[in-house]
Please model this.
Amino acid sequence: MSDVRVSQPHNVPPDEARKKVQGFEEMLQKYGVSAAWSGNQATLKGTGVSGSISVLPRSVDIVVKLGMMARAFGVDPVRLEASIKKRLQAAFEAPAT
Model:
């Protein structure tokens, strides 16, 4: 099992940070991964994938655990990490909606 860990610093209130993460969450849904939120924490679940999203006062931390099925489908942990970083950076550079 491979773990992908990404931490995106931010200077916005946690509620606003959570809204900015929604674009990342929508991208995950395209791959059959759902996020179940409880406060500022989410549990990620999908075929061959699990993990979490934590919206903290100064960062958003994402952990994606790739199981055997994800690797069998050719998910590359290095490319996935780069994609997550790119999406989070873009989300936090964008003005609040």
Helices lie at 14-30, 68-72, 77-93. The two ends are 37 Å apart (CA to CA). Strands lie at 2-9, 34-38, 41-46, 49-55, 59-66.
